[in-house]
Amino acid sequence: MSENGRSEASRNEFRLDLRWQWLILLLVLGAVVYLLSPVLMPFVAAALFAYLADPIVDRLERWMGRGFAVSLVFFVVAVVVTAIVLVLVPFIERQISAFLGQLPVWIDWFQTRATPWLEARFGISPDVLDTQKLIGALQANWKEAGGFAASALARVSKSGLTVVGWVLNLVMIPVVAFYLLRDWDVLVERIHALIPRSIEPVVSRLAHESDDVLGAFLRGQLSVMVALGVFYGAGLWLVGVSVGPLIGMIAGLISFVPYLGAITGVVMGVIAALVQYQDWYHVLLVLGVFVVGQTLEGYVLVPRLVGEKIGLHPVAVIFAVLAGGELFGFLGVLLALPVASVVMVMLRYLYQRYTQSELYTTRAEPVIVVAGTPMADIGGNDAAAVERPPSGAGTSPTEP
């Protein structure tokens, strides 16, 4: 073997070893994240906040230093959060009280109106829809849940370290977020400097695409959720549903899963309208609110605030949320869709590489086998056994 052939073979062996090293590194990082997931929650929340606020701080740096800009952002966020808590907490409390007050009326309406109608139209047995059994089961489960909650609360109150841990996590989030946001650009530059130069262009390209996707999702989808919650709540309140704002907020908050927010809001809104007004006019008004909301989401909010860069199928969204929750708990639910968005960027890159590879683009010249040729002769050099079509000829085999 020549010297060039040996050097080429050694380079290929080095590349293979390098790929295995990257695979082992990714597996180790995944295992570390899985093992440390119970304590990563405050750091992940702080990193998400720093990532979302970094563009605002970068714009403020045109007129002031970065440290002062970060302090100003934290002050504004603290004022806004305090105002929201002071306004929303009493409002939500009143909405929940109104809902609990109407719950007996909902149960009575289901017993006296919905059950006979379902039995007459669909032949459903009343035993299947026996609300007394349902109430009894709920009461039993509620007592068990209450006992479990009481015992858990007792254990927590006895364990001072648990309470201290919760308080420390809450305090750590703004502290860690402040330092991450202050040094965000420095951290990004240092991570960029650690990337091997051979793969730096590809990594930088994928990082920029991932940043676009994550920015579109985190900033855009949160804006869509808030806008839908406000629209649904205001619309149901204008229609006259007393617990409409609460239903609207619930529908908006879970709208990150496609169609789940709308379906939940429609079911709760229709039941509330039927119980409160007992006519179909208000049911149609409730349906109109959600039809307009879905149209607004599909044609205005999502194209303008999120765009088409994420491209996650609804089934993929549901699977990502369930898989993240199963693997990492609440931390997994929090990171499921951002991670899925980055995975979509990687899959698009792999698809592009595949469509440009020789495996995909190479067109092998067709080989025609003459009928009656033994299989042992195919693949050899026997011209009588295998013939190639002449240039410009059709697809019919030539005579031997």
Let me know the number of strands. 2
Order of helices and strands: HHHHHHHHHHHHHEE
Radius of gyration, in angstroms, nearest whole number: 31 Å
**Tally the helices: what do you get?**
13
The percent range for helix content is over 70%
Distance between the termini: 42 Å
- Helix-strand makeup class: mainly alpha
What count of structural domains? 2
Query: What's the main sheet like?
Result: 2 strands, antiparallel
Mean pLDDT: 76
**What is the overall silhouette?**
globular
**Low-pLDDT segments:** 142-149, 381-387, 392-400
Proportion in β-strands: under 5%
Q: Spatial order of the strands in the main sheet? A: 1-2
Please, could you describe this protein's structure?
With 400 residues, the protein is an all-alpha fold. It folds into 2 domains: 40-89 and 127-194, no CATH class; 196-360. Helices cover 78% and strands 1% of the residues. It is built from 13 helices and 2 strands. Helix 11 (314-328) packs across helix 12 (330-355).
Topology at a glance:
Layout: H1 3-36, H2 41-60, H3 66-122, H4 131-158, H5 160-182, H6 184-194, H7 200-239, H8 244-253, H9 260-277, H10 280-306, H11 314-328, H12 330-355, H13 358-361, E1 368-369, E2 386-387
Antiparallel strand pairs: 1-2
Helix pairs in contact: 2-3, 2-5, 7-8, 7-10, 7-12, 8-9, 9-10, 11-12
Organism: Dokdonella soli
Subcellular location: Membrane
Family: Belongs to the autoinducer-2 exporter (AI-2E) (TC 2.A.86) family.
